[in-house]
Every structure is written in structure tokens, then in C-alpha cells.
């Protein structure tokens, strides 16, 4: 089976095929069908009775519905499978403390992943990644791609949501701000950057200052280096890289032209 997705055709994952297949031999499909019956109050609903092997079948059904939900690209089917998994989990609560904890963790992981994937797949962003592509690329690559397309706000939101560092996003945004702020004075550009970056005390101004220097704004680069939290980086950038041909001493010592604010 094939999907038409994002302007191309992709093979439907086996997890999706299984959970939407005939009931025989697939615990996920059986759980989904049971939930549909329960929701519509149709027929006899085979609820959990604690019979031998029943717990394992329900647990397998919950796991297969979760696996199908994270692979599914339709938000309607995602919700259907998540609700079926939640329905099955209700009958497993308290059966096994260790199993309960594992299921809670799996639900949280699937929910986080789907929230990120669906935000990437929105019409405004149009980054049509499947779950397997998302896993293969990894979070850092996805964040870099968002920055390249100037979706800085979304990139920061995803970083905050997943608990990863947003420093790369902040530096990319600052560089773009400098490149596009050619009409602003150095003081205005510095103040705008500082105001937005102040809530992030660990962000490094080194790369931002280098961008200003490469754009021909040496004075702005010097101003930005005043906010660099690492003294070692502040010195290493100020002296050998952001410098003019003027040197201290007559023996060709350390260049300090720009470090002193001299252009």
C-alpha cells in the first residue's frame, strides 16, 4: 500500500497496515475495533476480564495503537488510535506497576513526537516529514533546517518543548538580524539584540560578533563582545580576528585596533 504525501508517494508502514487490517491476529486492530464498539455502544464489547493471556493481548494492542499513531500522517487517524490506546490502558492500570510506568512514558513520548511533527507539517511550514524521516534526521538537523528557512520562533518553541538548547537558534536569528539591519545604527542593532537575548544568559555572543565583523560592522562587533559571558572567547575574538593592522609595541605584538573600538 502507498500514500500520496507531501507531493510524493511513500509506502504505508506495516504498523499502519496492521492496526487498520482485519481483526484476526492483530491485537491493535482488535483494540481499535473494541473501542469503536464501545464509543458507539454497538454490540457486545469484550472488556478486560483478567483471563489468562488477556493482559498480554491488551498490552500488545495498546503498544500497536501507539506505534500506529506515531507513524500516521492524518491527524484524524492519529486521534482515533490514541483514544483506542488510552481506552485499552484504562483496563491495564494497576495490573503491573512497572508496566504502568512504561506505558505512561510511551504515551508521553508519542504525544511529544506527534505534536512536533504536526507543527512541522502545518501549511505555514510545509515540512512533510514522516516519523521515520524525523527519527533519521534527528532534532538538531530539523532545528537547523527551520533556521535556514527563518522559522526561528517555531524552532525555539520546539527546543523549549523538547528540553534541548536553543542557543543555535538564537545565534542564527541574531546573525539574520545583523544581515537585515543594515539601515540601523550600531547602537540600535546592539540594543535590539541585547533586549531579545537578555533572557538567555548563556548564549554566546562570539559567533554573533563575528557575523557583524564579516558584514563590515567592526564597531558593532566590539559592542557585542562586551556581552560575551566567556572572557576567553571575548579575548580570542577581539584580538586576533577583530583587529586592524595596528599593533601594540614595535615588535608586531597583539593587534588591538577594533578591541579598543577603533575602526
Number of strands: 2
Percent strand: under 5%
Helix content: 55-70%
Unreliable runs: 242-263
| Spatial separation of the terminal alpha carbons | 65 Å
**Mean pLDDT reading:** 80
Structure annotation, total helices: 13
**Tell me about the biggest sheet?**
2 strands, antiparallel
Strand order of the largest sheet: 1-2
Question: Could you spell the SSE succession in H and E letters?
Answer: EEHHHHHHHHHHHHH
Shape: elongated
What is the alpha-carbon Rg in Å? Answer: 27 Å
Structural class: mainly alpha
Secondary structure elements and their pairing?
Blueprint (H helix, E strand, L loop, with lengths): L1 E4 L2 E4 L2 H6 L7 H14 L13 H18 L3 H16 L6 H24 L10 H7 L1 H10 L3 H11 L4 H14 L5 H12 L8 H9 L3 H8 L5 H8 L25
Antiparallel strand pairs: 1-2
Verbal overview:
A hairpin with a 2-residue loop joins strand 1 and strand 2. 60% of the residues lie in helices and 3% in strands. The chain is mainly α. The termini are far apart. The chain is elongated and about 75 Å long. The protein has a two-stranded antiparallel sheet.
Structure in a nutshell:
The protein is mainly alpha-helical.
Features:
mainly alpha; single chain; 263 residues
Amino acid at each position: 500500500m502507498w500514500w500520496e504525501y507531501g507531493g510524493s508517494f511513500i509506502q504505508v508502514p506495516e504498523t499502519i497496515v496492521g492496526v487498520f487490517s482485519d481483526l484476526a491476529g492483530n491485537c491493535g486492530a482488535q483494540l481499535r475495533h473494541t473501542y469503536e464498539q464501545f464509543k458507539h455502544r454497538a454490540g457486545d464489547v469484550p472488556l478486560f476480564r483478567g483471563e489468562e493471556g488477556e493482559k498480554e493481548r491488551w498490552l500488545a494492542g495498546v503498544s500497536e495503537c501507539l506505534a500506529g499513531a506515531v507513524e500516521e500522517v492524518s491527524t484524524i487517524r492519529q486521534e482515533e488510535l490514541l483514544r483506542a490506546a488510552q481506552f485499552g490502558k484504562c483496563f491495564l492500570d494497576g495490573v503491573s506497576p512497572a508496566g504502568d510506568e512504561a506505558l505512561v512514558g510511551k504515551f508521553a513520548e508519542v504525544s511529544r513526537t506527534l505534536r512536533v511533527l504536526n507543527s512541522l507539517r502545518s501549511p505555514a511550514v510545509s515540512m512533510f516529514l514522516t516519523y521515520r524521516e524525523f527519527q533519521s534526521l534527528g532534532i538538531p538537523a530539523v532545528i537547523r533546517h527551520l533556521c535556514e528557512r527563518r522559522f526561528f520562533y517555531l524552532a525555539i518553541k520546539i527546543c523549549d518543548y523538547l528540553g534541548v538548547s536553543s542557543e543555535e537558534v538564537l545565534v542564527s536569528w541574531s546573525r539574520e538580524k545583523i544581515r537585515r539591519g543594515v539601515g540601523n545604527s550600531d547602537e540600535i542593532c546592539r540594543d535590539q539584540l541585547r533586549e531579545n537575548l537578555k533572557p538567555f544568559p548563556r548564549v554566546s555572543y562570539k559567533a554573533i560578533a563575528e557575523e557583524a565583523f564579516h558584514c563590515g560592522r567592526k564597531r558593532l562587533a566590539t559592542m557585542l563582545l562586551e556581552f560575551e559571558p566567556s572572557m576567553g572567547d571575548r579575548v580570542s575574538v577581539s584580538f586576533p580576528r577583530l583587529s586592524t593592522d595596528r599593533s601594540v609595541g614595535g615588535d608586531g605584538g597583539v593587534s588591538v585596533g577594533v578591541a579598543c573600538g577603533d575602526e
